[in-house]
């Protein structure tokens, strides 16, 4: 019972941490290297505990991120729902990939996410972003193995689901 | 112990219900986006939930503030002394300039009074601090630690010591968002200081420059020319530095010259900014005068006749 509650807090805490790290600014030169944290954390949880992560949760997290830093309400809800849907659909296969293949899959998912964002922004009338805008998915994919191992290790240490 | 492969863990989860739910959520998101794009719900929602949103902004701003505090704490004595010395010299210079300006300003005031105009050189400003929050919109926005409760209104110009930074776009109770002049959807009317040529400076895609895309071919524009606000349009008061021309080239169509300029304000380094309170007097024809009724002291005596004369007055307006 207590352990279940702890694991729920841990789950919610990582998502809140993702939202905060998304808002924290980096020095100007590092700015394009910032990964899309909410997507990475949601991906991790959708691979590790599928019963918690549903499309509805992804949608709500997306709305929360929109409320905090969105340009349009619903933009990140759309992106995160699509991302989680693909991750859940290929979950069984992604879980058994070796790490480098998993990282490549994450790269594909994040690139797909950027393309979705680009479509939304261009349809909303924004101008095309600079080339450095495409670096972020690669950083996210490069960070993925470390993030995955770190979170798995912490989970094992805290003995939570 | 092999897990039986059932619905809860399908290798190829191809159930239609999941797809249907996806479509419902995506449609919901698209509807939200369209409605928000039309009506600007996001900021109203942000305003309504400000009690949650603003602490998150402050919390996210803590690391940047912490780094700043640490860098001040551990900055070595020599550097601080040097900085102090430089600031003293700057202050001395600025004061000397101000003293000379004061006489000119007074003269200007007297001459303007003679000319019976209302423009003044006084500045009514409010100091605000930048909160380090990344709002994700390609870095064309700043968050300030002052909002509606401090009297900030959308449209107020924001400047720093070197020039115009942008204007307040959205206001929350205790924070506000500033749209920078380098935002591609921002335009600011400028005048070139040397020649007096009026034009418009737009933001540019890379977010660090201003572009002036429609300068007439025959105009005299050189690298190094200073841009000032022209005060046209009534949003920015005239005479503030905006930028400095860095390159001039013919446009792709060959009809105009295109100049690129570097903003004079430290858009990505300023920590303290000034919010201007008096907005510029709008140029153009004066606002239409509201039609006045008969003097109030006449009303009780002729209340019956006033109600009778109302239709005729209305028809008089229509005519």
General description of the model:
The complex is a heterodimer of chains A (161) and B (319). Chain A has 7 helices and no strands. Chain A has 161 residues and is mainly α. Chain A has one domain. In chain B, the strands form 2 sheets. In chain B, strands 1-2-5-4-3-12 form a 6-stranded antiparallel barrel. A 6-stranded antiparallel β-barrel of chain B has the order 6-7-8-11-10-9. In chain B, a hairpin with a 4-residue loop joins strand 4 and strand 5. The N terminus and C terminus of chain B are likely disordered. At the A-B interface, helix 1, helix 3, helix 4 and helix 5 of A face helix 1, helix 2 and helix 3 of B.
In short:
The complex is a heterodimer of chains A (161) and B (319). Chain A is mainly alpha-helical and 161 residues long.
Q: Could you state the order of secondary-structure elements of chain B as H and E?
A: HHHHEEEEEEEEEEEEH
Report the count of strand segments of chain B: 12
Strand content of chain B: 15-25%
Main sheet of chain B? 6 strands, antiparallel, barrel
Helix content of chain B: 25-40%
Output the radius of gyration of chain A: 16 Å
Observed structural traits:
heterodimer; A: 161 residues; mainly alpha; 7 helices; B: 319 residues; alpha+beta; 6-stranded antiparallel barrel; 12 strands; 23% strand; disordered N terminus; disordered C terminus
Layout of helices and strands, plus pairs?
The complex is a heterodimer of chains A (161) and B (319).
Chain A: H1 2-23, H2 37-48, H3 55-69, H4 75-89, H5 91-96, H6 99-123, H7 135-158
Helix pairs in contact in A: 1-2, 2-4, 3-4, 4-6, 6-7
Chain B: H1 16-39, H2 41-48, H3 50-74, H4 77-115, E1 125-131, E2 141-144, E3 157-159, E4 164-171, E5 176-180, E6 187-192, E7 198-203, E8 210-216, E9 226-229, E10 241-250, E11 256-263, E12 272-276, H5 303-318
Antiparallel strand pairs in B: 1-2, 1-12, 2-5, 3-4, 3-12, 4-5, 6-7, 6-9, 7-8, 8-11, 9-10, 10-11
């Amino acid at each position: 019972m207590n352990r279940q509650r702890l694991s729920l807090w841990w789950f919610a805490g990582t998502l809140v941490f993702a939202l905060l790290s998304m808002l924290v600014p980096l020095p100007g030169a590092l700015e394009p290297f910032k990964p899309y944290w909410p997507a990475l954390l949601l991906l991790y949880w959708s691979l590790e505990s599928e019963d918690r992560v549903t499309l509805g949760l992804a949608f709500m997290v997306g709305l929360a991120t929109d409320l905090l830093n969105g340009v349009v309400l619903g933009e990140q809800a759309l992106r995160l729902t699509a991302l989680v849907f693909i991750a859940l659909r290929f979950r069984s296969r992604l879980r058994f990939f070796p790490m480098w293949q998993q990282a490549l899959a994450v790269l594909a998912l994040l690139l797909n996410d950027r393309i979705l964002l680009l479509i939304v922004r261009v349809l909303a009338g924004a101008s095309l972003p600079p080339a450095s805008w495409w670096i972020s998915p690669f950083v996210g994919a490069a960070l993925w193995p470390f993030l995955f191992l770190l979170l798995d290790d912490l989970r094992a240490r805290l003995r939570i689901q | 112990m092999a897990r039986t492969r059932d619905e809860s863990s399908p290798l190829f989860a191809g159930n239609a219900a999941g797809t249907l739910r996806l479509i419902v959520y995506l449609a919901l998101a698209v509807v939200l986006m369209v409605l928000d794009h039309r009506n600007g719900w996001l900021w109203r929602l942000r305003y309504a939930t400000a009690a949650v949103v603003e602490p998150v902004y402050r919390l996210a701003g803590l690391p940047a503030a912490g780094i700043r505090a640490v860098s001040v704490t551990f900055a070595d004595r020599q550097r601080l002394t040097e900085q102090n010395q430089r600031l003293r010299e700057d202050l001395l210079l600025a004061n000397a300039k101000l003293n000379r300006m004061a006489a000119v300003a007074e003269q200007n005031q007297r001459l303007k009074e003679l000319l019976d105009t209302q423009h003044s050189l006084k500045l009514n400003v409010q100091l605000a601090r930048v909160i380090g929050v990344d709002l994700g919109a390609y870095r064309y926005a700043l968050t300030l630690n002052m909002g509606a409760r401090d009297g900030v209104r959308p449209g107020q110009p924001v400047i720093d010591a070197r020039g115009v930074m942008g204007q307040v776009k959205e206001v929350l109770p205790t924070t506000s968002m500033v749209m920078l002049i380098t935002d591609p959807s921002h335009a600011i009317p400028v005048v070139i200081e040397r020649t007096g040529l009026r034009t418009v400076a737009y933001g540019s895609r890379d977010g660090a420059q201003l572009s002036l895309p429609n300068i007439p071919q025959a105009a005299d524009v050189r690298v190094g020319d200073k841009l000032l606000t022209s005060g046209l349009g009534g949003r920015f008061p005239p005479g503030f530095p905006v930028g400095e021309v860095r390159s001039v080239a013919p446009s792709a169509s060959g009809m105009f010259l295109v100049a690129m300029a570097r903003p004079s304000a430290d858009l990505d380094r300023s920590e303290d900014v000034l919010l201007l309170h008096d907005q510029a007097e709008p140029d153009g024809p004066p606002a239409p005068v509201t039609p006045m009724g008969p003097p109030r002291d006449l009303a009780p005596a002729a209340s019956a006749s006033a109600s009778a004369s109302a239709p005729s007055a209305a028809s008089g307006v229509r005519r």
